[in-house]
Amino acid sequence: MNMKKSVFVLLLIFGAFSGLAYAEAPAANAAAPAVPPSADEQGTLSLLRAGLRLDHREFVKSSLKLNDDEAKRFWTLYNQYEGDLIKVNDRKWQVIQDYADNYDDVSEDKAAELVKNMFEVRQSRTDVLKTYYKKIAKALTNRMAMRFVQVESVWNAASDLKLGTEIPLIPKQ
């Protein structure tokens, strides 16, 4: 099985069983862009994305333990946060797709580009979290906003660890 197909299969399998946020792959075949995904694959990815967002929400909900008044203010902001986070994750999957497309022959220039793009994705994720920390602190309290950042940090660390172990290292030349 080639790298592109391997990554796509891996992402589907992982997405089905992981329950982690980074599986916010775009609704296109992330590992094999040269072959448009079938309607079934697009539907499967869309369902996985929706399911994973629900898992993420449930993790946040159970970790924050908000009262009714807090929940009303928090979830309005969280919905906005989730929309911004999806955009970041879409970009992340574009970088992963680019890596898969070039895996067998990553040039020096491509390697530098991929690393630059991944740093930009990580910075974007941090920027989004920082923006919503401020909004949540204003709507609730600094302590509750800090708790939200801690919860997101745990989620992201677990997601990054799992993803890092699933995507093969660049071949040594």
Structure description:
The chain is mostly helical and 173 residues long. Helix content is 77%, strand content 0%. It has five helices and no strands. The longest helix is centred in the middle third of the chain and has 35 residues, at 68-102. The protein is elongated. The two termini are 21 Å apart. The model is unreliable at 12-36 (pLDDT under 50).
Structural key phrases:
about 170 residues, mainly alpha, elongated
Q: List the secondary-structure elements in sequence, H or E.
A: HHHHH
Strand pairing plus helix content: what structural class?
A: mainly alpha
Report the biggest beta sheet as strand number plus sense, adding barrel if it closes.
none
Strand coverage percent: under 5%
Mean pLDDT over the residues = 82
Q: Give the N-to-C terminal Cα separation.
A: 21 Å
Summarize the structure.
The protein is mainly alpha-helical and 173 residues long. The chain has helices at 3-18, 39-64, 68-102, 108-139, 142-166. The model is unreliable at 12-36 (pLDDT under 50).
